[in-house]
Design goal:
Low-confidence stretches of chain A: 273-278
Structural class of chain A: mainly alpha
CATH class of chain A: Mainly Alpha
Number of strands of chain B: 20
Helix content of chain A: over 70%
Distance between the termini of chain B: 40 Å
Number of domains of chain A: 1
Strand order of the largest sheet of chain B: 6-7-8-3-9-10
Shape of chain A: elongated
Number of strands of chain A: 0
Oligomer: heterodimer
Largest sheet of chain B: 6 strands, mixed
Helix content of chain B: 25-40%
Number of helices of chain B: 22
Low-confidence stretches of chain B: 540-549
Amino acid sequence: MDTIRAFSRHPSGMIGLAILLVVLVLAVLAPVLYPEDPWEMVGRPFAPPLTDGFLLGSDTLGRDVAAGIIHGTRVSLTIGVTSTLAAVLIGVLIGAMAGYWGGRVDDFLMRVTELFQTIPGFILAILLVATLGPSLVNVIVAISVVSWPPLARLTRAEFLRLRGREFVQAAACQGETPLQVVLRHILPNAISPIIVTGSLTIASAILIESALSFMGLGDPNAMSWGFMVGAARTVIRQAWWMSVFPGIAILLTVLAINLLGEGLNDTLNPRNARSGRH
Amino acid sequence: MAEATLLSVENLSIALPRGADRAHAVEEVSLTVGANEIVCLVGESGSGKSMTAHAILRLLPERVSIASGAVHFKGRDIAAFDEAAMRDLRGGEISMIFQEPMSALNPLARIGDQIAEAIVTHAKPAPARETVDARVIELVTAVGLPEPATIVRSFPFQLSGGQRQRVMIAMAMANNPALLLADEPTTALDVTTQKQILGLIRDLQRERGMGVLLITHDFGVVADMADRVVVMRNGQVVEQGTAEAVLRSPQHDYTRALIAAVPGARPVGARSRDIHDAPILVAENLEKTFVTRQGFFRPPRRVPAVRQVALSLNARETVAVVGESGSGKSTLGRMIMRLIEPDGGVVDFNGTDLLALRGEPLRQTRRRLQIVFQDPYAALDPRQKVGDAIARGPMAYGTSRQEAMAEAKRLLARVGLKDNAADRYPHEFSGGQRQRICIARALALKPQVLVADEAVSALDVSVQATILELLAELREEMNLAMLFITHDLRVAAEIADRIVVMRRGEIVEQGATAEVFANPAHAYTRELLDAVPGRRLFAGPGSLLQATA
């Protein structure tokens, strides 16, 4: 409760939350606002914004840009959230094992993590999608595979810090099993920074997805922002609106999630929260 | 004794922000410190004694301000000083040392540079480098640090707690202050180090004719140090006078209570505790060496913590393990709890080899051995309600939630907490109350052996006394055998049947409490006994025991 109250007093966090809520509502209402398939050619190509009944203009094949953006919201958010959840799951599991057991397990798991960290993330994602084939599931797999290492490192650091704490030792002395100790005492005390990093991971996942679609590696059946920017880039001098509006959509969503993450960081971290409330 | 008045605090009130537990941290406090005298400001935590000291240097936290009253230093009103003049005063004519020397030193700067900074900041024009270096060495030598040339090149983490406090004192002495404010300078140190640091402060004070305002909660320290005493409670001065008068014939009940709380000041009760020679815990040849890796090319660092230690504990018996920090006493306790795996040795508990147990049998045996940790702030999960913390143990062994919670509430009442405590979070309790919660948690599993690892060391002397009393009652009620780990011989004398003295990982002496205090066989034990503060006044636990023996 305290956290929620503190967060409601965090201006930039609340702005982020507001933008994100608008984006969510648009995603939910997409079939109502634009019931037609966004791939459908519904009018004259190259129509500028606010002409021919197009709010944001039409693209090179006469498809509605606004419809594309609204439907693209669903794709971006789905991919962002799902791949982040998968990354958090992998990262927390690996980080927790490394941090709790330490020693050789830790050495081994951290070397594996470093292996992933040394390969540039985006190139690995391209490689994975190119090999597995461009589909929604494969894009999610690729993004989560490149997103988990920072989460694993963070979880490991938190577990290392908490494992030696006296209340954790006390729980072990009280006869709680290692699993209970981890789930009841270590994880709840480590969860705040994980949530914060996780929220920021969603933003970067959306960016990776956009970049993959821009390169033509997105799901060919899903209308996505990155695809729209990519398809319109050759005509940017004649028809700026085709790439600018999807670009703004990416910018706003990523910005909103970053603001939200920052707000969470300030309120969930007790030291910041105290100074934040003054 | 008091010559010219150096510092006078007149009717000082400090207002706390709205929403604090009281309106004023300090109310109408008046006190004076003369040149060449030591004034002790005594009180429990929360009495406003630190706040008073910080107000003298105008170092109050944000949103806390002086509401009325004045502070005069050498006749000048400090409120009239501008910020630049205040900066000159701080670390110049008035210096301060703090409780925790680790957090008061910059961890990334060398000791010598930090002391030099204190000199250079206040010297105008800046002196030559050689002059400063020579002065740094002089100061480091003056505070009794070994090998000054090495010390100045060290980083804070390479020094012990006592050495760090000496460095803090050297910094405070850098500009020959007229007044030294010492805020609980020895509370974080063990007895022998405390004695050295207090001795150092007194010597420096005499040599330089300084005024010292020493803040403490321990009347033992007061007895050793003070010329005059000011006793504070809830932000108000309840009594002040010369040390002799306050200590010998205290006027106020609160002062009497504080003096009575000094361990070893109380007469030792009847010691016939009916203990039979029936060991339930026998440790033999326990051995532990800590190994730290130092990178690829350097050999790992080995620190032997416990060497060939043998220890036995009879049913219902309380054994105190006494020693300085680094003596291996905590490691010993944790090895018996299986929180640290020993390198070798045997621990026989009720006929089973504790060290051979793994998995489920170990978990089943664990409930018979419980531990109370030193720091009650670190030992409770901040996100777990107090009732859950206590009930979890029995529930882990199959007691139903209802039954466990009922038992938890009963235990909380037994350790002296209110009914609603079970539904609250640890941060809502004071240090003493938290330690009571920790004791309730340990006892929820009905253990046979309780390891108390410095269980009262982090507490105020007056709270210490009540916790010790509680432990003494509970061990009778529950037929507990107790392994009481402490650095404070006074505390050991209060509760232990037998005393084991450890030094550098080895047991140097053990025997019945009265015997050890009356006829210490080992030089180190005698050293520990001498270090007990307040021996002048309270005659020390040894002689009290001698009188009853």
